[in-house]
Write a structure and sequence with these properties.
Largest sheet of chain A: 4 strands, antiparallel
Structural class of chain A: alpha+beta
Number of strands of chain A: 8
Oligomer: homohexamer
CATH topology of the largest domain in chain A: Alpha-Beta Plaits
Radius of gyration of chain A: 19 Å
CATH class of the largest domain in chain A: Alpha Beta
Strand content of chain A: 35-45%
Strand order of the largest sheet of chain A: 2-3-1-4
């Protein structure tokens, strides 16, 4: 996990950085609001990535944010076995994440496909998500 | 200002809703993290729009989030005179917001243009933003 | 809407106050984290209640939190027609909120019943919630 | 410390999970509001527990939240020597936490007892807390 | 209440602005972390002031933050009668706020005096605060 | 990194503690808003310091906050080479941080000097910051 506290970038710049970070092939990145000294409402950027990506992420962060220090610590991860599958739903073909845990199988419709279907049929995200989830038995 | 507290939607759904809200021609929309009863970490959605948009926004929110109540109160706004102008910068033509306040004129480069230039020339957002801001005298 | 910024109470006290506030018959109450002067991470308490409850709420807040000022402003509310109904589900009888909006009817299982069923059958909250939601057609 | 970012659960579900987690005999659990990609206001769940509890906590989290990954890292803890004692106060017997640090002894009244007394005598939480704290000399 | 959402200022600048705002004789000012479109972690600045201060506050905000719009709405306030009194404590003279509510009188030691005493005698803030509070009977 | 969750201190006390912590020669300290059990909106204090400072920081925290446990884990840091230099600007002499990363040199004006100049010339923080940044070429 890489973390850095940012008190001299604008929100616009932070939004730009979050989106571009994912282009580097990281596992995850997110912001946490923090409160630093001298009454500064600031942002902690957290980036989760493989060891071999660290240098690339650090160079990116040093270039794009005016931070001068990045903290690092190792985290283990317990990851469930998952697979992206294309399935048939009443909305046509769409992707779902199939996750297995202790002899149970869970099906989670993929965000981008749910979004597209919602927009195409003018339905709510929740309705599409739940209908696909209920239709698909794996 | 329209506001609603949401404790039964997922983050995925909320992200979808925020993006789609802007398609309705509202002035602004944003999330605030709140803490509701029964240990629920929840989200307050705030939408700023013209009076004639309220019904459309309410219908959208009731359809897409499982909320059953929306709060409303009138806010006045002091808005600075601003203009979007196309100007020449050392990176080529780009848009800037020109704002006037008490005989002072401020120039703010437009986010989408700064983003495109940053990606094209592989420069940091800040560097592009500041260089354009300093070059343009209006 | 009643609001007050609190910088001299403990979190324990705030949790106690939130729970007790609901005993007064208010519509809603929630916390927002804010940042006040002198580097103080503080809490804004918001209470939504009917006009005739205001005095009772104010007396409660003045007594239980060491705040000396409460802000107030009027908010309108658009509330969907809703009804709590007892329905038969595969888990036995349970309550659902039935909400009507633009010729559509939505069914939301009640939190306390979902909770009880989850604990009784050792199932996840989500699974119980979604199964009841899908079974009930009104 | 176990941590997981949650973007596909509702606040109702999260509140349920927080309460139930404590039934597993963990040391602590809490939520932090974070901001994930694609405009998602999300929640980080942090759970502190002994090594031998990890598997049980992970199974619980995988079952109740639709997360597919949990991060883990080891933390040391400096814990002050503390003891729960039953003492006599002007409100009757109540429990206090007695903590020793560098030859100083601190007395902290227990939350649940302060709560009960506050409700019984219709006094503010703070008043009961401080009166007990001042009365008890150990 | 004046409010403005800020997505193009740095934390350093925001800290500076919060401190300077109090020089204008406002009633209160504070920050709330919000999440705006395009993945921007941003800050809402709220300023509470008398009607006759509004113009001065707006000019200050427009000059110091690159915001181009400020929202305004009227709030009523219920304020308890309070008085700053100089009292004798075992640490010497110090100021306390004396607040009256429904025939009860509360005494709250003033922050700046508690701070000074804590630093002078190398005691914790809480200890000084509570000792003064308990000593003073008004 | 030292971390502790605080649910029984006031915001006033926390602000006092943050300021005093920096007197101990730590690297950084900041607050994060969290949500603990029993509906408690609480604060996580994070302190980054050298190994040899840990005991001093722990003693300070145990004395000033009524916490009874502090978590600790080791973090590595990637720190850019930086130097504080006094330079001549159109506002007179001021300090800037000069940072080197991959053959690029960045100049960041020092907060306290920008603040002083802003107040002296009645200019906005941003304007002073950017003018110094643009003038100084190293």
């Amino acid at each position: 996990m890489l973390e850095t506290n940012i008190d001299d970038s604008t929100s616009e710049n932070l939004g730009f950085v979050l989106e571009q970070l994912f282009e580097l092939g990281i596992n995850d990145a997110y912001f946490t609001s923090i409160q630093m000294k001298k009454n500064r409402p600031a942002i902690k950027l957290s980036v989760l990535c493989k060891l071999e990506k660290i240098e690339q992420v650090e160079n990116f962060v040093f270039k794009h944010l005016s931070t001068i220090g990045i903290r690092k610590y190792k985290v283990d991860r317990t990851i469930l076995k998952r697979e992206i599958k294309k399935v048939k739903s009443s909305f046509g073909r769409c992707r779902v994440k199939v996750v297995t845990h202790q002899n149970e199988t869970y099906v989670y419709p993929e965000y981008e496909d749910v979004k597209k279907i919602s927009l195409k049929y003018d339905l709510s995200f929740n309705e599409v998500y739940n209908r696909i989830k209920n239709e698909i038995k794996i």
